[in-house]
Each structure stands twice: as C-alpha cells, then as structure tokens.
Amino acid sequence: MSVSRRKRSIREKVQNYRDRLRAQGLRPVQIWVLDTRTEAFRSEAHRQAAAVARSAGAAEDQAFIDSVSALNDE
What we know:
Layout: H1 10-23, H2 39-54, H3 58-69
C-alpha cells in the first residue's frame, strides 16, 4: 500500500491539526484545575461555606451574591 493511501494514525491527525492551528497564529495552553468530583474538594468547599455563613458579614455577603446573581436573570 502506498504512503498516500495508508490510514493516518491518530497521532498524525492530531499533529496535523495542531500544525494548522499554529499556522493560524494560535498556541496551545494547558490549565490544571481542582477536581470538583473528589470528596476532599466537597469537604473543603463545605468547610469554607460554613465559615462564611458563620462570619459577622454573612448577611451582607449573601446580599451581594444575590444582587450579582440577579444580573444573569435580566
């Protein structure tokens, strides 16, 4: 089978795609974020939310969150 007729591997397809993007002036960026599916994340989020709820400014903080959340409803 000639080279032009053989199937390209996934690696070759991805490389060609990336080359085309780079030719358009783009570059890859990788961002690592916390895994929100883990128990450790859930526990820490709960701990922080409880700390905010117990704080002296809890009512004012919640009023701010409610006011900016309403902006999406308009």
